[in-house]
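SEQUENCE AND FOLD
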Amino acid sequence: MAAELRRSGHADSFARDNLPPRESWPALRLAEAGLAYPDRLNVVTELLDRHVADGRGARTAIIADDLRWSYADLAGQVNRIANVLVRDCGLVTGQRVLLRAANTPMMVASYLAVLKAGGVAVATMPMLRAGELAWPIRKARIALALCDHALIGELAKAQELAPELARIVAWGNGEPDSLERRMAQDGYDRFEAADTARDDVCLIGFTSGTTGEPKGTMHFHQDLLAICDCYGARVLRAAPEDRFIGSPPLAFTFGLGGLVLFPMRIGAAMVLPARTAPADLIDAIERHEASVLFTAPTAYRAMLDRLEGRDIASLRICVSAGEALPRATFDAWLANTGLPLMDGIGATEMLHIFIAAPREAIRPGATGLPVPGYEARIIDDTGRECPDGTPGRLSVRGPTGCRYLADARQAHYAQDGWNVTGDTYLRDGDGYFWYQARSDDMIVSAGYNIAGPEVEACLLTHPAVAECGVVGAPCPERGQIVKAYVVLREGFAGEATLAKALQEHVKAGIAPYKYPRAITFVPALPKTPTGKLQRFALLQMARGEG
């Protein structure tokens, strides 16, 4: 990448103005990865419009429970939403748009429409509460949101906390001002893609931080193609005839890549069932003959108990990421289906998977090899490379990399041109990388990243809680669970009813998946002489109790 950014296509310069200083970026190695993209690039032109222009518009793009869209159908929906954004809502290029919905066809079309119109998509988890939604609204100065009407309640509450959000356009409510009604206007069927640069920001993915404050990761139009052309083309190696399915929300870049970008890059189909619990995934795979599955190890374990008598013979590629893949899960899935799980590690900062192995090179128990186009190494606390077989910090570089939105934590993640991921790994003599542990305090439960301090902050708002510490405890089903150690205020008793009340309190305050599944009442928390919580001591307690 050249030293200077290309001429931006953004009239609203907020995203570019809030990129970290160039000297603090990791190296972006497109040429070394064998990638070349034109300076003027709108990713939707490549992912969607190209298929229609080249005569592939009739190919199936989206399969849902009650509808099926071809690529031409999807292009039409995208154009209409883009026109609503620009002509009805006054969107200017570079403006951020919050998206709130489950994995539905309208969510996909809305996401692509924001990018085609030159906006910056900020997708959010359906389970987030108002306070969690208010943070990205304020941080990214979001004035406009597109939202499934079924999820508008918490967003409306967030609007009270973050008045920057001036307008919400909902779909699915049948109202005269709904998105669908606006889309139906005459002349909205055509839309010319915004003239954006390949290094214009097109999405901001917010990820939990160990401080409890989510970090906004900024990605360019070229980044969305790079993950398709590295992991998608060189490791996954799916075909246009494949049908992709999975459980990760599109607000997770794991889900965005695996369920939308990878199939669209090759003209394949995505299957979007209304529900994606393990039993529902089996139903949808069987019904729609899905062939490529993206989900977390927890879901694969749960699906194993439900496979008897089911026909999932259409599956041919199974990708596991989001948390460490236990060897026992790999072995059981292979024994029951004949399919090896393709393990992988990615990061929101890197957009998608950067270490994995193609099916013929899988080594059970290992995460894999650097994805072609990426380099990885193990470093010690001083930044020096560790010998093979020695655990250390995983660092990686390639065509994508960390660029936080106006965040001092950039210097922690990007060091000397490398991305330091927060994971402890070792590399063996054959170049395979083996997961050891997280290097920070992040709890990884059933594929979700949960920041302990965020759960602590919520617990501390309950009148019974004087102090608390939250860590991850081992769990055979979920990998880890959130475990809270709570010191009560005088007058409260550590009983099961209070533990239940604290769990419900957390569910009401932050996303329900973050609640502590185990609570232990203690007289005091382990602390340093200066009064800081000794989280490592709590981790030792949790592991001993597990």
Observations:
- DSSP finds 16 helices and 25 strands in the chain.
- The first strand starts at residue 60 and ends at 64.
